[in-house]
Amino acid sequence: MRLEGKVALITGGTSGIGRATAERFAREGAAVVITGRNTERGDEVVQAIVENGGEALFIRTDVRFADECRRAVEGTLEHFGKIDVLFNNAGVFHPKTVPDCTEEEWDETIDSSLKGAFLMSKYVLPSMIERGSGSIIHTSSGWGILGGDKAAAYCAAKGGLVVMAKAMAIDHGADGIRVNCVCPGDVKTPMLSDDAAKRGLSWDEYAAGAAERPLGRIGTVEEIANAVLFLASDESSFVTGEALVVDGGGVAG
After folding, report:
1. CATH number of the domain that 93 lies in?
2. Number of folded domains in the chain?
3. Dihedral sign, CA of 44, 46, 50, 53?
4. I need a surface site. Which of 39, 115, 134, 213 has the fewest CB within 10 A?
């Protein structure tokens, strides 16, 4: 098992890519702590992992707020004694241009993705530095590299994560800590379904457009979880400061 004996803290772990990654990590031997704002969904993920022989804990957390991030990190350390992997996956999406985007929508998008990753990293890093090892992964996006339509705040947040990962990799390589991004393309998640509805498209219409890429389809949450697993494991021991695009060739095309 590639994460045997490891402890992983995953934000936005109650659905979509976060849940799939939590379950994948658990199957690879990691003890998993997931955070999110929905306690019912969090408890459901923990139950699913435990029923399959894994070890998991849910800590309700809104990553936009420093005190809640600090509490999540402290709770993980108190329960498991260490954090080997931090997966900053929490985020929201509002399909808006700059003129259409409200200040509240902008703040929620930036704070959930970019500020949340900053805060969680801020509180996790001291324990990783003390132990001399760790892997931090941010969920960015193909749109964090190329940009996309009606997604100004989202692209700003995801683009910021790519460059922040590079800066963190430079700062903490000597501490034995690797920092990378995974950049998914369109993946079948509740967030993607919500985006389709907000754009006034049926799922079939939306999925057909999203599939216009070299591999001719959208991705699955399991495929993204596999990429995150690679970045979390020792298999990527010489990889840091990178943005791993997992999008069926969308950025290439």
Report:
1. 3.40.50.720
2. 1
3. positive
4. 39
